[in-house]
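FAQ: What does a ligand-bound record look like?

Like this one, built around nicotinamide-adenine-dinucleotide:
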Amino acid sequence: MLGAGAWARVAHLPGFKRDPRCELVAIADPQIDLAKAAARDFGIPVATESHAELLDRADIDMIDVCTPSATHFDLTWAALEAGKHVLCEKPVAYDYRDTLRARDLARTRGLRTKMGFTFRFSPGMRYVKSLIDAGAIGTPFIFNGYEQNSQWLRPSTPLRQVDPHADQSVLQVSSLEGYGAPIIDLAHWFVGSDLQSVVGTMRNFVPDRMVRATGRMMRMNIDDGDIFLGEFVNGALCSIQTSFVTVGNYPGLEARIYGSEGALICRLVEEFGCCQTVHAARPDAVEFKRLEIPAAFYPPGGTDAESWRTLFYANLTAGFVDEVLDPGRASEGDFADGAWVQETINAVEQSFRERRWVGLPLDRGGEPR
Ligand SMILES: NC(=O)c1ccc[n+]([C@@H]2O[C@H](COP(=O)([O-])OP(=O)(O)OC[C@H]3O[C@@H](n4cnc5c(N)ncnc54)[C@H](O)[C@@H]3O)[C@@H](O)[C@H]2O)c1
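The answer part, i.e. the structure of the complex:
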């Protein structure tokens, strides 16, 4: 385990701890007190300041990168070069071409990869995907996606994962990448087609903020809300909205898909003691009715009463272990998916900067095909 911060403790480590096929061997964090505390709390024999120490060990099969975003690529690359399967939080890299290089390195070494696309592993979203695959909506027409909550609505809430030295005259991508990645991933997974063009815009709604790295209020020209439209190769359309200054609870995802035979809505929003709901409607019964999520979509022992963080992540880590143990199993939510999502994010940013529709794939400079 690389990183002993908040997300490692509430999502990753509980997932591996719950899986009898896993043994947590060692944890590294340059903040050694955090590494030691996590080692104590999760029964991990070794805590160290140095990630290199873990990569050198022959008895470690898998490395989990749960560190600040800017460190993901170098750590992932080093872990793949050391011959380890890698789970990495999103993004692997800010430029999709670097994620593709990491995907290719893993493929040539016969290694498995996994992105921290938490929300496709929620029981609710997995149930919706199974209904789509069974033909419940027919041909997909429109996907609407939201990933939003009020995590940083108050300017005094210390902001993480931003560069306080960035040029403040230029809007920095933030919510689109940090929040957008999982809902863009869900759009791809549900619609079952690639995007061929996008147009989008971004805004900075809250200009001055408390920044954790500096401990003071300062101007942060970051995108804290954005919207884009997309056209898929198969003819479907999508709209995606992400923000961390829009009122609402965690995690704040809503995926709606409408097709020729029906419509499905999955909400992952902790409200009134429940973290996920699925609703469905059909052309002959247009009022959306709530569906019970079948037990088969939950991890062993999982319930809606537990934290969404452990509930969803337990499915993710178990899925990765399945893939590592079974060479014949298809990969799901891996670096190929991560590169696709990152390319979409890069295209939306280009669309915003150049105020125009941008064509995908991006290898033609964003020109429409
Ligand atoms: N998928 C999700 O839903 C989700 C949710 C929250 C966070 N995240 C992601 O998880 C990652 C971690 O977030 P967090 O909230 O835990 O951040 P955090 O700042 O609390 O923890 C990160 C830890 O990584 C450590 N670190 C830095 N460099 C390291 C290195 N070379 N080796 C080992 N450890 C190193 C830091 O000292 C810190 O303790 C981020 O990329 C974040 O975007 C994902």
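Follow-up question: can I read anything off the structure? Yes, for example: The mean pLDDT is 97.
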